[in-house]
Give the backbone structure.
Amino acid sequence: MSTITISQNITAQTNDNKVSDDEAGFEKIIVTAQKRTQSINDVGMSITAANAEEMVRAGIENVGDLAKITPGMTTSQSLMGTPTITLRGIGFNGFTLGSSPAVSVYVDQVASPFMEMARGVTLDVERVEILKGPQGILFGQNSTGGAVNYIAAKPNDTFEAGISGSYDSFDETHLAGYVTGALSDNANARFAARTSQGGDWQENYTNSDKHGQRDFTAARFLLDWQAADNVKLLFSLSGWQDKSDSIIPQFRGARLQSLGVNGGTAVDQEKYDRGQIILALPMAPDDAQAANWGTDSPNAHDDKAYQTSLKVDVELSNGMLFTSITSYDDYSQDFSLDRDGSPLDIIDITSSIGKIEDFIQEFRLSGDSDFMQWVVGTNYMNASTTNSIVIGVGDATNTAVVTNAIVGTNWESATQYGAHEIEDYALFANIDYLLSDELTLSAGLRYTDSTKDFEGCTSGDESITALQSLISSGFIDPFAIAVGDCVTLEPNNAFAPGLVKNTLAEDNVSWRLGLNYKLDSNTLLYTTVSKGYKSGSFPVLSSPLSIQLDPTTQEEVLAYEAGFKWSMATAPVQLNAAIFYYDYNDKQIRGNILAAPFGVLEKLVNVPEAHVQGIEVQFKAMPMSGLTTSLTTTYLDSEVDKYLGLNNAGIEEDLSGSIIPFTPEFQATADVEYRFAATSNVEGFMGAALIHNSKTNSSMGEPTTGKIDAFTVLDLRVGLASDDGVWKVSLYGRNVTDEYYWTNNFASQDVEVRFAAKPANYGFRLEYNFY
């Protein structure tokens, strides 16, 4: 089948490009999806755009919240608690620090190349653009699903300042502010900051302890300098710190890895005893606030990041523009998470300490004439990542090896270590050529060369060290591995233990062809075919054997799309639609392998063949003065065409025909708002927003342990604002029907757990601006 997309959600307006209302009665939506300023109705691709007011209205505080306004997008928390994005069925639910996402994130065209670094991007933004489908030409190879491009609010040449604050029913407080103005005749600056504090929204259902508070602060400084008549510089320095609690998943039942035997051998008895303790754990009720956790670690973050960037635009002769974008990122994390949702150490993240540094340089040259617009460029990235994760497993059934008779202790923990050195080179070009007054040909090409050097292994306590020594004792002397050294064994080297080192070198050519036909001034017809790639990945996981650390190869998406964008000339009505079909090959997922003598082991694997097809439609209208309505529906049909995988029992299954994880068949968003004159200089408003997702699954083969039920969420808002924009006060309710739903559900070690979304929450918000 195919799909229909409706691309523009909302109105957005740039400081540099003030525009009047178009014929349809809506303000024009200005986007930079092709790295130049255009009306969204002139861009032949599916785009969702939202301005700052609409993001506040929807309660969007981070990248994951964009699913509230973006048809076809789902967000979830991975097993490590990190956010993952799936767009039209294309996503990567990995959780290795430094693994590349399938949907890339940018701020003012500056990349946040790893999802962990993107927590502060929603600060003081003017608008956000979500581009759907492969965006490899202008946004790089790791954007097979799409790209999210934030545009920060820019400095002004006149003084402005603003403050805002909100408080909700979980006692969470948000404060934000900005100040901007001229530093000289040719230099303007802007400083913005925000902080979120408090809000313990989870409650331990065994002892009533509270958890889930926010402690997040972000800031950004922008300097806009007209260095010469033809030279403009934009310097940015931003950073954030997150000391929030880690959100605890809910324990939903036992799924024992090893049953053991009551009265059997010492090992079997230990497995049996541990299993009985796990089976006796109380299951979380169907209450979003309900959780249970241990106190061995703080279950909190101590993460921080900063980014500095410099964009230089130089206007050359003949209408050409030279652009240089240079950026540097530094990210560090130290967090813990009770991943099993219980007071036991079944699969707890005792600590995860990691660091990412990256340097990115892009040069491009662009130009336009009466019949052509073009851009050519080159991009370079160098990144390094390290991550050391201590996993507490002392109460799991499958770690009951009873080696205490040998070393005096049982297996309590394992340490997963991994480090990457990444180097990417790319050349790209794109052209829009006017074949006639109505017909435009768009073509793009990008060559990418990528090299990843990896090292990693597992180490652990005395017990796992002794166990791995015994396994390898047929080939080397027993107990040759020192405690703290790598215990990962190399089957192809006489099962010798040691640090695993490997290199993944890949290259690819992304491309795009499109035709845009302007039927009249209000109607655009378009069709595109494009190919994009996501680079291969090395995992960081518990690895008794080195083959578990082999990389997956790059995945690819061949996408076909056709659609239209239409605005009524005589009334405020907008209708957009698109159909699409994706060939999705070598999708990267966490799967299983069968390896002696251990049995079933976890490993990153490629799914050879899959496809996604679907329809998106959006309708927006103003049926009467002051009343604005919008409705977006998305239908997705995803299917694995070829994949033989192992289940947790080590039995090979043909998983062809299963859906792609995190891809609900049907999604819908609706919004209605009514604005009216409360007094001669005060405007009132009231509105409602509805989100619906049909059921989906977090795993291949759609096991019951991965089911994610359908949900419908209703938000309400009401408020007053001065006509001159100086102040605004509003009340809001999120999930006012108190719908219990979750974004991820998975089996891990001996437990099934899920990440529940927040329950009903009410609050008020105040804004005041100084002009």
Remarks:
- The chain has five helices and 44 strands.
